[in-house]
Amino acid sequence: MSSPDPSAWVVHKFGGSSVADAECFRRVANILETLPPGKLGVVLSACRGVTDGLLGLVARAEAQDDSWRGELDALRARHATIAQSLLKAEAAQLYMSAFDRDRHDIEGILHTVKLTRSAAQNVRDLIAGYGEIWSTKLFREFFAARAQRPGAIQWIDARQAVVVEWGPLGPAVQWDTSRAKLRELVPENFQGTLIITGFIASDKRGVQTTLGRNGSDFSGSIFGSLLDAAEIHIWTDVDGVLSADPRRVPDAKVIDSLSYNEAMELAYFGAKVIHPQTMAPAVGRGIPIWIRNTFSPEKAGSLICALPTSKMPVKGITSIENIAMVNVEGAGMIGVPGTAHRLFGALREEGISVILISQGSSEHSICCAIPGNEAERASRVVAAAFDREVKEGQIQSIQVDSGLAILAVVGDGMAGLPGISGQVFNALGSASVNVHAIAQGASERNISVVVDNKDATRALRAVHSGFYLSPHTISIGLVGPGAVGRVLLEQIAAERERLLRDFKLDLRVRGIMTSKKMLLSEQGIDINGTNSWKAALDASAQPADIAKFVDHLHVDHLPHTVILDCTADEGVARHYADWLNAGIHVVTPNKKANSGPLDYYESLKTARKAGSSSYLYEATVGAGLPVISTLRDLRETGDKISSVEGIFSGTLAYLFNVYDGNKPFSDIVKDAKAKGYTEPDPRDDLSGTDFVRKVIILGREMGLKLEMRDVQVESLIPPGLEQGTIEEFLAKLPGFDEQMKKRFDAAAARGKVLRYMGRLTADGKATVGVSELDRTHAFANIALTDNVVRYATARYNSNPLIVQGPGAGPAVTAAGVFADLLRVCSYIGARL
Ligand code: ADP
Ligand code: ASP
Ligand code: MG
């Protein structure tokens, strides 16, 4: 980073944030004093906020609001505090008397502004420019008194050196005049440090002007060019040019090196760290620009130069908010030359700058982005410009939409690399961001999309993580931390770090809710060990409120939200459609939604499409077994399913696996209950209702339009025992053992066994109940509580496809949900 030619100038520019207070001035001095010997041009901004403050004075005076006097006092007090801290008493006094002369002038000007109620641009420029004069004079005194750097220290008032001419493209530097003027100010053989005012300049007549807001960066590079500097260093309050605005994308990364063009695009589209005009003078002379952090000078920073070494195809993503789109549409425009010319001509005449242009190849419509605050004016001028065409019907509509933002994806390496725009749109689509317009420059260095303001941060983050510039952060909310939910949290906690490290997937559980309370966290709940979140949840004073819970999860700055519903609750399931419509992904083992009314089930499928969100529920049937995904794969690949049969209840599987006609059936029910294989009330299993729900879910997955009432179900609760306590039920159950035994013996006489199973056929028949099966049947030979599913299809015909294994229990159910969660992550772009 050290200058290649020790006799060459190096220009260092410090932004407002680097000279915010006395401590900052000391820091700047330290940085300069540790640089290698050589000639330094030091360009300073005004102390942070001072330019805004000065412009605020003008605005108040224009509004005849006398409070500007108090504000001016405050500006004085700020500088006095810094001067007193940095300078000896006498020097501070001298500095303040000069300040007071300026203040007197400002008072005079503002008095006139108040009387005339308006300030001309040159008055505004004059006032705005005092900030740089004050900061540089103060720093000069301080730096000279420290006398830590060899050579002379000279203050340069840039108004005496830099001459610019303001045109439609901003200030144009008059290089020859400026060079000559600087030569007059700085002796040929000067050795030492120039302390230079940023931001201000003069016009050809010698009247003070500025280089526009944030113009000190431009000053830095103008002086770099005027002094033929070997390097320009722009010192600010971040580690360099970041892959996105760190206030919007907290995990933005420093770009180690980027080209002038990349930097220019990023700056133009809002990367405030560098002013877009900064580059031109440096590019002309091939001067490398370093962006560095005043607060961490040891860090390398970013290098902006002609031939950067970094090979990343996408360097950064930026956004400009509050823009409006002008859209002119009409069949009469097709093949008619000059429409674009007239549109842009009309806007230019009004001084409305066009940020982005997009035209379909059919020429049927043309649209452009302009600053949002110009929307109304633009609407008027464009309507006037095309008045005749509108009346004659050649143009059907002129529309100006506000509340939009531009997102720009920038990188030289995108040129010629297929798939980049696909990645951008994938990321946007999966974050449910609607795109209003698209523009890509012929250089392929920039892809710009217009999105809603409200989606801008989410879009930025989605695209940023889409390019692996930051992890895919998933905002997760878990409803119902019961047996399954709890284990699921354990499983996520165990894999979190690995997923982050290997796949840049950041699973953040930001909310846990029971039926009574909820626990919310911005950065993510600590789920390492059940005790930690359990204690926090117990301590939480926030009552359960599903709307608040969802609002907290689905924030604009996190592109992806997943709700894990681990309840068996119908009330929770009723929210899925709204969530899916809002772009929230839903993953659940809860059967209530899919087995509820068919209308609702179908509305979920529609909502999923509308919100481009995923709805996954593998764990609703057979827990973690791939029952639904297998069925879906068969259908999607064009297989014809003739029937699906199975045992979808571990409890009922157990009862019939164990029952051998000797031990009474009622004893087996009691044993199963004692072993914890049944629901607390075994009738919940024996009724077959839960089984029917699973059959419905599979049937609908097959494309059958089934309701619960369409399933013919055999309940194993003997008639008359539906009501009453569990104890009464168990006491009366032996009275029916004989009946079951008869059935068993009859089957055995035919060489068959009994199994409680469900059957679905392609013609829409659905039955659930006890069947007789051959002893060799797959269902006759499963382990105790296993689930089993048998798919008979055109392809799996003589030898059906069978999925079998443990189909109940918290660990396998949670794993099924977890696998679905990861599936959602891969749909949104995580490469698992
Ligand atoms: P200075 O006072 O040094 O001129 P600015 O506030 O003008 O500083 O610019 C620096 C700020 O720009 C940073 O603090 C950061 O918040 C913001 N910024 C926006 N986009 C980017 C980006 N892509 N890289 C770095 N900083 C950015
Ligand atoms: N002080 C000026 C501004 O705030 C210039 C700068 O800081 O770059 O716009
Ligand atoms: Mg700046």
Keywords:
832 residues, alpha/beta, 8-stranded mixed beta sheet, 30 helices, binds adenosine-5'-diphosphate, binds aspartic acid
Question: Can you offer a commentary on this structure?
Answer:
This protein has 832 residues and is of the alpha/beta class. It is 40% helix and 22% strand. Strands 3-6-2-1-9-11-12-10 form an eight-stranded mixed β-sheet, with helices on both faces. The longest helix is centred in the N-terminal third of the chain and has 28 residues, at 89-116. The radius of gyration is 36 Å and the shape is elongated. The mean pLDDT is 93. Bound molecules: adenosine-5'-diphosphate (ADP), aspartic acid (ASP) and magnesium ion (MG). Adenosine-5'-diphosphate (ADP) binds at residues 15-18, 45, 214, 236-238, 241-242, 244-247, 271-273, 316.
Question: How is this fold's topology laid out?
Answer:
Layout: E1 9-14, H1 22-33, E2 39-44, H2 50-62, H3 68-86, H4 89-116, H5 121-128, H6 130-146, E3 152-156, E4 164-167, E5 170-173, H7 175-185, E6 192-197, E7 200-202, E8 208-210, H8 216-226, E9 231-236, E10 257-259, H9 260-268, H10 279-285, E11 289-293, E12 302-305, E13 316-329, H11 339-349, E14 356-359, E15 365-371, H12 375-385, H13 387-392, E16 397-410, H14 420-430, E17 435-440, E18 446-452, H15 456-466, E19 472-479, H16 483-503, E20 505-513, E21 518-520, H17 530-539, H18 546-553, E22 560-565, H19 570-573, H20 576-581, E23 585-587, H21 592-595, H22 598-610, E24 615-616, H23 627-636, E25 641-647, H24 650-658, H25 665-674, H26 683-686, H27 689-701, E26 712-713, H28 726-732, H29 737-749, E27 752-761, E28 766-774, E29 786-793, E30 801-806, H30 810-827
Parallel strand pairs: 1-2, 1-9, 2-6, 3-6, 9-11, 10-12, 19-20, 19-22, 22-23, 23-24, 26-28
Antiparallel strand pairs: 4-5, 7-8, 11-12, 13-15, 13-16, 14-15, 16-18, 17-18, 20-21, 25-27, 25-29, 27-28, 29-30
The structure holds adenosine-5'-diphosphate, aspartic acid (ASP) and magnesium ion.
Aspartic acid binds next to helix 8.
